[in-house]
Design a protein that fits this description.
The chain folds into two domains: about 280 residues, Aminopeptidase; about 150 residues, Alpha-Beta Plaits. The strands form five sheets. It has a six-stranded mixed β-sheet with strand order 1-2-6-3-7-17. Strands 16-9-8-18 form a four-stranded mixed β-sheet. It contains 13 helices and 19 strands. The two termini are about 20 Å apart. Helix 1 packs across helix 4 and helix 4 packs across helix 13. By secondary structure, the protein is of the alpha/beta class. It is globular. The structure holds zinc ion (ZN). The site of zinc ion has 5 residues, from helix 4.
């Protein structure tokens, strides 16, 4: 199989409009069509692995190893993508899988069809070479990661739990090769933790009435004051172990103005790093007001003004701490605080070990493919399907072998999402090396 043919398979996978919808409004046909295509495109995988379809749209492949005493590894990606309308500011159509100027364009190219295609291609290649793993390999591809993974990853976990499967590790998205804003060059970030997720609903009540005779105090005014105070009184910064390790491991790459950074006190470090929104997300439980609702008419005072505020707790903080922090600010203003959706609260992940063969194998594979690139542990500020898979794994490692450059994590979900052809072929190589290192065999 030529490199060109491999890249064309990725491009074709991007063409399927596997867009995540709200529960009940999923269009399943593209997922089913993609399953058929994968069967044709990766025949060795489909001949040698057990394939299970979970909740109609998700896929679980098992390649059994010869040594049952070794805990399996899982490589996971997701099939769904966030929406992209035709005619948006895309240089190339989001669902045409265009390859031009050394890049493959389209929604999901990085998030996370590079993983779907790359993992399958790596397995296809090693199976064609006659590889027989000692350790079992699971490939898990959920179909609703972008909306919480409750039907995909969570159901795959339920299935594996019934079989008493305990994984040595899961390799998921959440770390990339990119330039952190305070560094001089790219580093490969292996996520060894991810932040939690929580949305609170703030409700201010007032007199409904005509806007011509408002009281001095209105519901909208109180709500605005509350949001302003929440921004002013941020949840205190917390330097988690992975972020501290990241700072230590990148000392030699800090921008010239930050040469003394590593020696500074935590308070001074915080003041510097929080100026970058990514830096703030690394060291703090973030506060993000996202939705507002008041009256539906310009001349009517609402009886209720509502704000949704999304929080992402760092390891060490939890949802109870956040609720207490918000209540202390909101209650004196007469504002109620409630969970928006109790089914969608995730505490921060545990911090995974760097002292495992799995972690070392990831680092070695990166170093072999990109000699000289600094590899560092880190934290992922968003959530992945590993919030589910982590329940049946000793450790979770988050790394996608793609260069995001100075744009960093803002590439994900952006218009004009694309991946370089070179990165894709390197990704196939990375997954191949990782599997060979971890699974031994012949
Ligand atoms: Zn993703």
């Amino acid at each position: 199989m030529t490199d060109r043919e491999k890249v064309e398979k990725l491009a074709h996978i991007i063409e399927f409009r596997t867009v995540s919808g709200k529960p009940g409004s999923f269009e399943m046909a593209p997922f089913v069509q993609l399953q058929d295509y994968l069967r044709k495109a990766f025949p060795a995988v489909h001949k040698n692995c057990k394939r299970e379809i979970v909740s109609e749209g998700s896929l679980l492949y098992t390649l059994p190893g010869s040594d049952p005493s070794l805990k399996p590894i899982m490589l996971t990606a997701h099939l769904d993508v966030v929406p992209a309308e035709d005619g948006e500011q895309w240089p190339h159509h989001p669902f045409k899988g265009t390859i031009v100027n050394g890049r493959g364009w389209g929604r999901g190219s990085v998030d996370y069809k590079i993983g779907v295609a790359g993992m399958l291609q790596a397995c296809e290649d090693i199976l064609n070479e006659g590889f027989l793993p000692a350790r079992s390999i699971l490939l898990a591809f959920g179909h609703d990661e972008e909306t919480g993974g409750m039907n995909g990853a969570a159901e795959i976990v339920r299935l594996l739990r019934k079989r008493d499967t305990q994984l040595s590790s899961v390799l998921d998205e959440g770390g990339y090769i990119y330039t952190l804003p305070w560094l001089r060059e790219d580093v490969a970030v292996i996520g060894i933790a991810e932040k939690g997720y929580l949305t609170l609903r703030l409700i201010a009540r007032g007199e409904q009435g005509h806007a011509s005779v408002p009281g001095i105090r209105t519901a909208v005014g109180a709500l605005g004051e509350c949001l302003s105070l929440l921004e002013k009184h941020q949840i205190p910064a917390r330097l988690s172990e992975p972020v501290d390790r990241m700072f230590q491991a990148t000392k030699h790459l800090f921008n010239d103005s930050l040469t003394e950074f590593a020696a500074l006190s935590l308070a001074d470090k915080t003041r510097i790093i929080e100026k970058w929104s990514l830096g703030n997300a690394f060291i703090r439980t973030t506060t993000a007001p996202t939705m507002l609702q008041g009256s539906s008419r310009e001349n009517v005072l609402p009886a209720e003004a509502i704000a949704l505020v999304n929080f992402r707790p760092v390891p060490g903080d939890n949802s109870n701490d956040i609720v207490e922090h918000v209540k202390a600010i909101a209650f004196p203003l007469g504002i109620e605080v409630d969970f928006e959706d109790t089914g969608h609260i995730f505490e921060p992940s545990s911090e995974d070990s760097m002292e495992t063969d799995d972690y070392r194998s990831i680092c070695e594979a990166v170093e072999e493919i990109w000699p000289g690139l600094t590899v560092v542990p880190g934290i992922f500020p968003a959530a992945t399907d590993s919030r589910h898979y982590g329940r049946i794994a000793d450790n979770v490692y988050r790394f996608v072998p793609a260069h995001l450059g100075e744009s960093g994590l803002s590439v994900l979900h952006s218009e004009g999402e694309s991946v370089s052809v070179e990165d894709y072929l390197d990704a196939v190589e990375f997954y191949t090396l990782y599997i060979r290192k971890m699974c031994g065999g012949k």
